[in-house]
Write a structure and sequence with these properties.
single chain; 457 residues; mainly alpha; two-stranded antiparallel ribbon; two-stranded antiparallel sheet; 4 strands; membrane; transmembrane helix
Length: 457
């Protein structure tokens, strides 16, 4: 216990070993889907030669990179963050990079992205940028992420969907239909009741009970497997599987600049860096705020180490062909369960490592069972909105844009960018030039280029 106290400062953060372990397991269960989803996204694309990556090798690579990155965060950053292949980042690799270069060259750009982020972190530039963002806007980022993960949970569970007469609708037809949605609703109601009653391990316990319910329902009812999403709840045929490390080390750092051309490769690298930079920044601020780890000025402890690990995670992901790894917003589920230190990440990272051997078990928890955690934690993160000065329009409008655009555009980066640009513009329009940190001018210009990049090239 003394060793754990020295490593993770449990007493200082008012937590216990039990709470940390429960939180770490909850984070794992909330993000385990990426071990199956990331291979599907990457294997669904072809590179310039027509080659496709192996699902089996990608599954091993995804779990390996996630485990290494999360354990680094545990021992170096002492933060309750799970890391894995970032959604959006993997899509850039698969559909923006691979069609113009080989897979090895695309992964080389991912390694370079991680290196750039490390340089920004070690030099202190990344921390300066984070510290230059107004405190109220940081609280808005927390609220926006809460809305974002709520929408992710609702969509993954099939409770809402796109299409039809409106951009979003209830269920897939305008009405709630099907057993998976029923299981999700039952799981959400159970989780709310247990959480409100302060049941220890409420979120984790609800996920486990709902998973068992989903397996029973799937075995007794006639259900189209596709309606469950990526993971179909069923008793696995086997428990142990053999990992395939064939993609480890398959990257080419600078070949993409030759094959695709300097301009195309640079645009891909710029997109990866910007998305990885601000997605992680928003998640770190939001989840840390929810965990009560920020000080009165909105600063996160050990931020430099956390940001450096995030950059290393990007390099790790590229070096094993799993795409860029980054801090996962689903870490908020573990924080909701009580996680406050890196000990939770030890539990998460250990379970991610085990999935290389026990991949069939990762195929048991469906979105219908894990998604309620995202909805509940989203509600908890919404409480940060009370810290935004809504009676001050100079802050209220940027805060609103930050909150609204995260779920509406399915991107943390877009929300942060809109908020920063609006804040800078409004302060300048009011003649309050002295209240605008010079770095915000730089960041605003970068975001303007980011939003316009497709139109310019």
């Amino acid at each position: 216990m003394n060793v754990l106290e020295r490593l993770f400062e449990l007493s200082a953060r008012e937590t216990t070993v039990g709470r940390e372990v429960r939180g770490g397991i909850t984070t794992f269960m909330a993000m385990a889907y990426i071990i199956l989803l990331n291979p599907i996204i990457l294997a669904g694309a072809k590179d310039i030669t027509g080659a496709q990556l192996s699902i089996g090798q990608l599954t091993t690579a995804t779990a390996l990179a996630a485990a290494v990155s999360t354990l680094l965060m545990a021992f170096v950053g002492n933060a309750p963050f799970g890391l894995a292949a970032g959604l959006g980042l993997n899509a850039v690799v698969a559909y923006q990079a691979a069609p113009y270069m080989t897979w090895a060259q695309a992964m080389g750009l991912v390694v370079l992205e991680g290196l750039v982020i490390i340089i920004l972190a070690v030099s202190g530039v990344r921390r300066l940028i984070m510290d230059s963002i107004p405190l109220a806007l940081k609280h808005a980022i927390s609220v926006g992420i809460g809305m974002f993960i709520t929408l992710i949970g609702l969509v993954d569970a099939g409770f809402v969907s796109g299409g039809g007469a409106t951009p979003l609708r209830l269920g897939t037809t305008g009405h709630l239909t099907g057993w998976p949605v029923t299981v999700f609703c039952a799981g959400l109601l159970l989780m709310i009741v247990l959480f409100i009653r302060k049941t220890p391990g409420a979120i984790l316990l609800s996920i486990l009970i709902t998973t068992v319910l989903a397996i029973v329902v799937n075995s007794l009812a006639t259900i189209d497997p596709k309606t469950w999403g990526v993971v179909v709840p069923r008793v696995p045929d086997s428990i142990v599987s053999t990992p395939d490390f064939g993609l480890v080390g398959q990257f080419d750092l600078f070949g993409g600049f030759v094959t695709a051309g300097a301009l195309t490769a640079s645009i891909v690298l710029f997109t990866l860096v910007l998305s990885g930079f601000f997605d992680a920044m928003g998640t770190i601020i939001g989840v840390s705020d929810e965990a009560g780890l920020v000080d009165a000025k909105g600063r996160v402890p050990r931020l430099g180490r956390i940001l450096t690990v995030d950059g290393i995670a990007g390099m790790v992901g590229g070096s094993v062909s799993a795409s860029a790894n980054t801090v996962f917003v689903e870490s908020a589920a573990g924080v909701g369960e009580g996680a406050r230190t890196g000990l939770a990440s030890v539990a998460t990272g250990g379970l991610l490592a085990l999935t290389m051997l026990f991949t069939p078990l990762a195929e048991v928890v469906p979105a219908a069972a894990a998604a309620p955690a995202l909805v509940l934690v989203g509600a908890l993160m919404m409480t940060q909105s009370r810290k935004v000065p809504w009676d001050d329009l100079e802050m209220a409008i940027p805060a609103f844009l930050t909150i609204a655009l995260m779920p509406f555009t399915y991107s943390i980066t877009n929300g942060v960018g809109a908020g920063v640009i609006a804040y800078t513009l409004i302060k300048a329009a009011r003649g309050k030039w002295g209240e605008i940190p010079w770095l915000l001018w730089v960041v605003s210009l970068i975001f303007l280029a980011y939003f316009a990049v497709d139109g310019l090239f």
